[in-house]
Amino acid sequence: MATGIAPLDILLNHGTEVFTFDFGRYLIAASLTFAIVWVLRHTAIKSRKIQSREATAADMRREFLQSVQSALVYTFGAAFLIWGREEGLFYDVFGVSFGLGTDLLILAAIVIAHDAYFYWAHRIMHHPKLFKHFHRAHHRSITPTPWAAYSFAIPEAAAMFLFVPIWQFFVPTPGWVMFAWLNFQIIRNAMGHAGFEFFPRWWLSTPMTRWINTTVHHDLHHNGGFNTNYGLYFTWWDKWMGTEHPRYRDKFDEVVSRGALRSFDKEPVPAE
Q1: What is the end-to-end Cα distance of the chain in Å, rounded?
Q2: Which of 29, 52, 206, 226 has CA 20 to 30 A from 93's CA?
């Protein structure tokens, strides 16, 4: 079936595959993270659950359905992205490689660039004139779960998708690098909404790791730190712009020090 409108024809002919790929990534990452949290909550480190409040079935159903909606937005956007690549507007990702070393540098660059884009787009969406239309739907998850990873209103989903064409307009990027970043992004997103702290007690105490976001970092943004902790992967922008929650370190230490957590962190369990 052809309409003569290239992006629409791409959507009609390839939309199902694009949706299956994108929603499949979300489904795998959210499902695995949810399952891992469920298992960990039945072990000695169960007290690493960040909030005492439990997300309801209705919360998770809403998060899931909004994520389906976001995947549909990404599918629509991908039709224009594919058309743009065919027209030479964006760099082609297929068959491109610059050697492993350069490819890995591009992968690191896209992660750093996406973190910056996410911080500023996220912070802008918190502006009172934009919040209701862009970001309020996501913040209905006061106690987020991994299903909230793509739980966006349509305008926010479009804003999140926009990073990809911007990046591909400027940077020739190998397909495997895009694939690796897309999967890294959704895994980290699911972890950030897991409501359970995965990282060890020493994570914020060493210069090698303290700049990498923990689950507590984003959980505070949903519950108790609405105008703080905008970053996705790293704490750099929040520190530079003075938007890191003042009790982030204290909250992290509190969560990872509960109960019998020391066995997990390879420290002696205190005597009863």
Answers
A1: 71
A2: 29
DSSP-assigned beta bridge partners for residue 196: 49
Predicted confidence (pLDDT) per residue in 16-62, tens digit: 999 999 999 999 999 999 999 999 999 999 999 999 999 999 999 99
Contacts 24+ apart (CB under 8 A), 25-28: 25/182, 25/183, 25/186, 26/67, 26/71, 26/149, 26/150, 26/186
Report the chain's C-alpha Rg in angstroms: 20
> Which backbone phi and psi does 212 adopt, to 5 degrees?
-95, 125
Which has the closest alpha carbon to 244: 204, 206, 271? 204
Q: Rounded mean pLDDT of 101-110?
A: 97
**CA angle, 169 then 74 then 19, to 5°:** 120
Q: Read off the pLDDT of residues 207-222 as tens digits, 9 standing for 90 and up.
A: 999 999 999 999 999 9
Contact 73, 158 (CB under 8 A): yes
Helix runs in the chain, H state only: 6-40, 57-86, 100-125, 128-134, 136-139, 154-161, 163-170, 175-192, 215-222, 236-240, 248-256
What span, in angstroms and rounded, lies between the C-alpha atoms of 183 and 78? 16
3-state class of 196 per DSSP? strand
Q: What is the pLDDT of residues 172-199, one digit of tens each?
A: 999 999 999 999 999 999 999 999 999 9
Positive or negative, the CA dihedral 219, 221, 224, 228 is: positive
Burial 195-205 (b: 16+ CB within 10 A, else e): bbbbbbbebbe
pTM over the 0.90 mark: yes
Whether the CB-CB separation of 185 and 112 falls below 8 Å is answered with: no
